[in-house]
Amino acid sequence: MLDNVQKIIDIIIPLIIKIIPLVAAIFALIALLYGFIKFVEFIARKEINHPDTIKKLSGIIRPSVIFTSKEVVIADQGGLGFIKTITVNLDKEDKHNPREIIIKFNKFMPLQPILTSLSAFQFHSEASRGKDFSWVFPIDPYVTTPDIDHYVFRVEILN
Question: Among 7, 25, 37, 121, which lies 20 to 30 A Cα-Cα from 76?
Answer without folding.
Answer: 121
